[in-house]
Amino acid sequence: MKKLRLVPVVVGAAVLALGAAGPTTSEGYAYYTYREMGDRLTVLVDSYPASLHGDDAYVPLSIAVGLSGPGKSVVVTPESFTLLDQDGKAYNPASYQEIARNYPKRLFDDMFMRSHPIVVGSQFSTSMRLPADFYPTMVGRGVRMERVELGPFTWFHTVLYFPRPQAGLEGVLTLRISGGGEPPVDIRFRIPRVLGDRES
Q1: Are 198 and 102 in contact (CB under 8 A)?
Q2: Taking the CB of residue 76, how many other CB atoms lie within 10 A of it?
Q3: Which residues pair with 59 in a beta bridge?
Q4: Which of 76, 33, 59, 75 minimizes the C-alpha distance to 160?
Q5: Contacting residues for 37 by C-beta, under 8 A, at least 6 apart
Q6: What is the model's pLDDT at position 96?
């Protein structure tokens, strides 16, 4: 009988342990690259570049967005995205003018993401890549694009800049894409610590 009495205690402890694990992320697609698939939209987020800016006023997120299946085109702008911190507080992307005026590391980010590009693998192998750059650098031939129109089986890659969340970069954050006639897609991710944080 004593052994039987221990069973509810063990089960209860297991339930508490699961509850303490906290919210889960979207599918891990590569090292700190996450994937979420909606009805037609697929979103990838590479959160590693953000780990280099833990003390900065702005946080870069490298993203890729693709549209599959037949149907209407979807127009995507920076305003299509919202960042939610671990407390659920929402942040809109910083404007291009704000980044150009107040953020001196845009060129560094561009060079880093060129040498460490987001991993898309075969996700968009049957789709056509479209040009996109919401925050071009002041050097080179970058041309600012305020919107991208995704047709069926097309995709794009760009970077988004958000104000650093008040709750910091800890815990699970959420990037939401909405509008364009498609259901919103929420992709949940973590930002690694700079010094040797590895996924288990």
Answers
A1: no
A2: 25
A3: 162
A4: 59
A5: 43, 185
A6: 94
Per-residue model confidence as pLDDT tens digits over 70-127 = 899 999 999 999 999 999 999 999 999 999 999 999 999 999 999 999 999 999 999 9
How far apart CA 151 and CA 180 sit, in angstroms, is 11
Which residues make beta-bridge pairs with 84?
Answer: 90, 174
The CATH classification number of 25-189 equals: 2.60.40
The domain limits of the chain are 25-189
Q: Are 99 and 161 within 8 A, CB to CB?
A: yes
Tokens for 66? 């693709």
Lay out the sheet containing 41-46: strands in order across: 27-30, 33-37, 41-46, 58-67, 154-163, 128-129
Contacts of 89 (CB under 8 A, 6+ apart): 165, 166, 167
CA-wise closest residue to 151 among 76, 80, 81, 77: 76
Spatial neighbors of 51 by CB under 8 A, at least 6 apart, are: 32, 169, 191, 192, 193, 194, 197
User: What whole-number distance in Å separates Cα of residue 152 and Cα of residue 124?
Assistant: 11
Q: Which residues contact 18 (CB under 8 A, 6 or more apart)?
A: none
